[in-house]
Write a structure and sequence with these properties.
mainly alpha, flat, 6 helices, DNA-binding, 2 domains, 143 residues, Tscrpt_reg_MerR_DNA-bd (chains A, B), Multidrug-efflux Transporter Regulator, Chain: A, Domain 2, two-stranded antiparallel sheet, homodimer
Chain lengths: 143, 143
DNA sequence: GATAGGGCTTCCCATCGTTGGAAGGTCAAG
DNA sequence: CTTGACCTTCCAACGATGGGAAGCCCTATC
């Protein structure tokens, strides 16, 4: 299938597909005799994976690393496992933070459920979590 | 406390604090007689909240909205609740996606735990989730 | 065969969040 | 007094993405 269809079914814009190819995130697409990029369903899977990972805040570099786990047949399995586990750790941490945030907002929603909202505790609730002093800062992954 | 200390304890760089102030995300800081910005612990809470929200992928605009819930005393409680619930929905959705991704990576990690890694199913596992065909696309957008 | 709508390429520009630096000045603590 | 932290304003860059223009080629349809 050509780039337009691949974009449609993967949810990644044609522009970004070309961009990813240019930056080595995906291998250069096959070309038809007339020079059109030609995508397999496998390529589409890769694109979907990329999109999902981007949606979750993974940087392109990180996605590249993840795709490498699958791509590089030559890679040490221990390496693969290590990287995967590290990413899982990141995810779990972020999930926890998100749950905290959701809880805070839920508290806000219920505490304000009447018509007379009291002093809303968005901030008060959020000061306890670990961070702030330590600059662990993995920062949105991006970068 | 001055901006440096506020940055230190909030985990938001001094530069970003000024940037947030400039963009109305936080109200202009008090100033000492000599013109230094002067931050209260409340301000620090706000900064921490901002940082946490940014880490979770909220855009500055969204954070502004959230801070507004707490800031604007004049706001309709129903409004506050609506927005909070919407954000909670976003979070829950993202948490689910992250859990899927973590599961996939876990599968990868265990399937590759031996020394002979098989065809890794990163992509195969990821094609089933809803998206891709339907263009719900809050994100990248197709073009 | 002509036309329209993709695709191809290479540009350049804009956005957002963030960081970095320079320059030139003021302040506070040693 | 010196040093470091702050003040200001600027300007640039990054990564990821979107938008567009220009010019040319391909494909499908009438």
């Amino acid at each position: 299938m050509n780039i337009g269809e691949a974009a449609r079914v993967s949810g990644v814009s044609a522009k970004m597909i070309r961009y990813y190819e240019q930056n080595g995130l995906i291998p250069p697409a096959e070309r038809t005799a007339s020079g059109y990029r030609d995508y397999s369903t496998n390529d589409v899977h890769m694109l979907r994976f990329i999109r999902r990972a981007r949606d979750l805040g993974f940087s392109v570099a990180e996605i590249n690393e993840l795709l490498g786990l699958w791509r590089d047949r030559s890679r040490q399995s221990a390496d693969v496992k290590r990287i995967a586990l590290a990413r899982i750790g990141d995810l779990r941490r972020k999930i926890e933070e998100m749950e905290q945030m959701a809880a805070t907002l839920e508290h806000l929603a219920t505490c304000c459920s009447g018509d007379n909202r009291p002093d809303c505790p968005i901030l008060a609730d959020l000061e306890n979590p670990d961070d702030g002093d330590e600059p662990k800062r993995p920062r949105g992954a991006i970068n």
